[in-house]
Amino acid sequence: MAKIAMKSPIAELDGDEMTRVLWKWIKEILIVPYVDLKSEYYDLSVDERDRTADKVTVDAANAIKRLGVGVKCATITPNQQRVEEFGLKQMWKSPNGTIRAILDGTVFRAPVIVKGITPLVPTWRKPIVIARHAYGDVYRDTESYVKKGEKAELVITGADGEKRHTVFDFSDCGGVTLGMHNTDKSIGSFARSCFNYAVDLKQDLWFATKDTISKTYDHRFKDIFQEIYDADYVDKFKAAGIEYFYTLIDDAVARVIRSDGGFIWACKNYDGDVMSDMVATAFGSLAMMTSVLVSPDGFYEFEAAHGTVTRHFRQHQSGKETSTNSIATIFAWTGALRKRGQLDGLKKLVDFADRLEKASIDTIEAGFMTKDLASIYEGSAVTLSSRDFLTEIASRL
Ligand code: NAP
Ligand code: MG
């Protein structure tokens, strides 16, 4: 059989531990036998990041910018324990944070849905994609204790002089206060990423804040979304047969629970942090959550939402077989290959991505799966090792 050709490469970002093992096997068993893979390889293992003083991460992010599409394996974010374990020169920053800062993107998370695993909200038949704004608000705030008798003020200085707003007069009792911010530029980038992704997926976009209470701060988010939508997206949404609507966060939460899924829910930073964990849990398993970073300039980076699955890697290192779920990592690959195919006009590559996803889902729906799914599957399940699960998918592909 002739392999499917590619025109331009994707950026391939390898990672750490168990997901690095899966990465190699996925390529060997499910990709390379069928696709004449063109990729620019970057090794983001913690050792290589240390050796290159993290230059490899920056190079990889720039490669995604240059090539338009990247696929990333999970990586270790060093903490003190990891610094000692690997003898690192310093506690390198999170690679995802570094890449996000360079691409200025929004992260979209979507669950892979299979028959036989019912979400905890049983009406959710289609995926709910959470788009989380990844800048500012309470994640970049300034906080302080305040003593009884003190007054907290918001002071803004600049060319227009000084503006002072009283936050609270703590005359009777001490307490706490905080100041936080966001920028029109970041909110605008977030809005564009969401609108572009909605058009891409042909799915409705919901956006919600608490603008009835936060009449300036949250209201600014609502206005910027509406201005950008009115200026650039009305026709594109109409052509795609989709809808943008804004509602109050309370109303959104109620509607999400009653919905059958199949839309993108854009959330402010904190809302997205909390709601993505709720939605992921309700859909069943972290191992079934995919994630894509979409930049406002139209660059895409696909990855799994979970980490390097260290506990399973320890088993693997000691020579034992593991039953680690590779679905989210496989879907990172199919996401990247499909996007590459769409950008380069390669129908066969797009078809291949569809077929590999279908073969993966069919395998689970036929009762063959890894341990994490077997424990929540409603039929009778055959539990496979990490590698046997991949060969089982290959047999259906
Ligand atoms: P994790 O790797 O997501 O794993 C936590 C637990 O979730 C596992 O022990 C396992 O549970 C279950 N799990 C996750 N993915 C699974 C899969 N594909 N198949 C089966 N079970 C799965 O999180 P962690 O252990 O907290 O973090 C490990 C390393 O990953 C850390 O160094 C962290 O920095 C890094 N990390 C990277 C990313 C990223 O690159 N995007 C994201 C998060 C964390 P059982 O052990 O009960 O089977
Ligand atoms: Mg969280």
Question: Which properties best describe this structure?
Answer:
single chain; 397 residues; alpha/beta; Isopropylmalate Dehydrogenase; 3 domains; 14 helices; 16 strands; binds magnesium ion
Characterize the structure shown.
The protein has about 400 residues and is an alpha/beta fold. It folds into 3 domains: about 1-105 and about 295-395, 3-Layer(aba) Sandwich (Isopropylmalate Dehydrogenase); about 120-140 and about 180-285, Isopropylmalate Dehydrogenase; about 140-180, no CATH class. About 45% of the residues lie in helices and about 20% in strands. It has helices at about 15-30, 45-50, 55-65, 80-85, 95-105, 185-200, 215-240, 250-260, 270-285, 310-315, 325-345, 345-365, 370-375, 385-395; strands at about 10-15, 40-45, 70, 105-110, 130, 140-145, 150-160, 160-170, 175-180, 205-210, 245-250, 265, 290-295, 300-305, 370, 380-385. The radius of gyration is 23 Å and the shape is globular. The mean pLDDT is about 95. Bound molecules: NADP nicotinamide-adenine-dinucleotide phosphate (NAP) and magnesium ion.
Biggest sheet strand line-up: 2-1-3-14-13-4-5-12-10-11
Number of helices: 14
Shape: globular
Q: What is the end-to-end distance?
A: 13 Å
Kindly estimate the percentage of residues that lie in beta strands according to DSSP.
15-25%
- Biggest beta sheet attributes: 10 strands, mixed
The count of β-strands is 16
Q: Give the SSE order as H and E letters.
A: EHEHHEHHEEEEEEHEHEHEHEEHHHEHEH
Domain module count: 3
